[in-house]
Design a protein that fits this description.
Number of domains: 1
InterPro entries: Imm8 (IPR028964)
Pfam family, one: Imm8
Radius of gyration: 15 Å
Number of strands: 5
Largest sheet: 5 strands, mixed
Order of helices and strands: EEEHEHHE
Distance between the termini: 23 Å
Number of helices: 3
Protein name: Immunity protein 8 of polymorphic toxin system
Helix content: 10-25%
Strand content: 25-35%
Length: 117
């Protein structure tokens, strides 16, 4: 089974991913929402990832902190960011969706992470 990105967006009433340009391309952070599902099904799970630059981290993170669910980039390049996310997700495969979803969750925050039924 293979995962594909079905949609990407920013969960904000004022920011559209298609037209977003940060004030400073070398100093920004942006949570990107990613809807992912099997390539052979309409089902989806939601993930999110914080895209940010080293300069943003330098100016905003004061204490030691884990960096999970982050994509660190040198500058804002929407095409490169989307390609990176899509390529990572496309590389997550497995025999069943639960296995694939957990692989994706190694780097993107998954809506069902830590869920126990």
């Amino acid at each position: 089974m293979k995962a594909i990105v079905k949609s990407m967006w920013v969960d904000s009433p004022t920011i559209e991913l298609d037209s977003y340009v940060p004030d400073n391309a070398e100093n920004f952070s942006l949570w990107i929402e990613v809807r992912v599902g099997p390539d052979d099904s309409v089902g989806v799970d939601d993930y999110r990832v914080l895209v940010c630059t080293p300069e943003w981290l330098r100016q905003n993170v004061w204490e030691p902190q884990w960096g999970r669910h982050m994509l660190i980039v040198r500058g804002y390049d929407r095409a490169a960011i989307e390609t990176c996310v899509r390529d990572y997700i496309a590389g997550c495969t497995g025999d069943e969706w639960g296995v694939v979803a957990k692989k994706i969750a190694r780097n993107l925050s998954w809506e069902f992470e830590d869920y126990q039924n």
